[in-house]
Design goal:
With 164 residues, the chain is mainly α. The chain has one domain: Winged helix-like DNA-binding domain superfamily/Winged helix DNA-binding domain (Arc Repressor Mutant, subunit A). 30% of the residues lie in helices and 5% in strands. It has 6 helices and 4 strands, in the order ααβααβββαα. Strands 1-2 form a two-stranded parallel ribbon. A two-stranded antiparallel ribbon has the order 3-4. A hairpin with a 2-residue loop joins strand 3 and strand 4. The longest helix has 11 residues. It starts with 27 loop residues before the first helix and ends in a 21-residue tail after the last helix.
C-alpha cells in the first residue's frame, strides 16, 4: 500500500516543477471571476480535475483514466482535454498524467514522442530541446525521478500513483 501524499518525499536530486510562482484560485468567488488568457471561464469539472491533479506527488504519475475514475465523472478523453487546456501548468502538473497503457501520452496538445506535423508547421521558433512536446514532458518527469523508455513507456511501475 502506498503512503499518503504528505509522507511521499521525492529524492533530493529531483526537481519539482510545481514549485513555481502561480496564482491558483481557491475560493468559489475567485473561480467564478477567473478567465483564461483567451477569456474563457472554467467549468466545475475542469476545476475538479485541476484540484485532483495538484495532489499528484513529485516523482509519481497517474493516468487520464484513473483521474476520471477517481472523480467519478467524465472519461479519459475529457481529462485529456482539461490537461491540454491547463492554464496553470506546471503548478497543476499535467506533465504527471500519462496514458492507461503507461505511454507518455500527450503534452501541449500533441500526442507521442515523434515530432508532429502540427508542431513542425506551427511557425513558432522553438529550441532544439523543445521541438517535440512529449520529449519535454519526458525530461520534466525525468527531472522528478520518473523515467520512460526510448519508445515512451513508463520504465518503473513504482512511480504509478493511484490517488492514495
Amino acid at each position: 500500500m502506498e503512503s499518503k501524499l504528505s509522507n511521499e518525499i521525492p529524492p533530493k536530486s529531483t526537481k519539482d516543477h510545481t514549485k513555481c510562482p502561480m496564482r491558483y484560485p481557491l475560493s468559489g468567488l475567485q473561480r467564478e471571476c477567473y478567465k483564461t488568457k483567451s477569456g474563457k471561464t472554467l467549468s466545475d469539472k475542469q476545476w475538479a480535475i485541476y484540484d485532483y491533479v495538484r495532489t499528484i506527488p513529485c516523482g509519481k504519475v497517474t493516468t487520464y483514466k484513473s483521474i476520471a475514475d477517481a472523480l467519478g465523472f467524465g472519461s479519459a478523453r475529457s481529462v485529456g482535454g482539461a490537461m491540454r487546456n491547463n492554464p496553470f501548468a506546471p503548478y497543476v502538473p499535467c506533465h504527471r498524467v500519462i496514458a492507461s497503457n503507461l505511454f507518455i501520452g500527450g503534452f501541449y496538445g500533441e500526442w507521442g514522442i515523434e515530432l508532429s506535423k502540427k508542431s513542425a508547421s506551427s511557425g513558432k521558433r522553438l529550441s532544439n530541446r523543445d521541438t517535440v512536446p512529449c520529449q519535454k514532458k519526458m525530461r520534466m518527469l525525468k527531472d522528478e525521478g520518473v523515467k520512460f523508455s526510448k519508445d515512451g513507456y513508463l520504465v518503473d511501475k513504482e512511480h504509478l500513483w493511484n490517488g492514495n
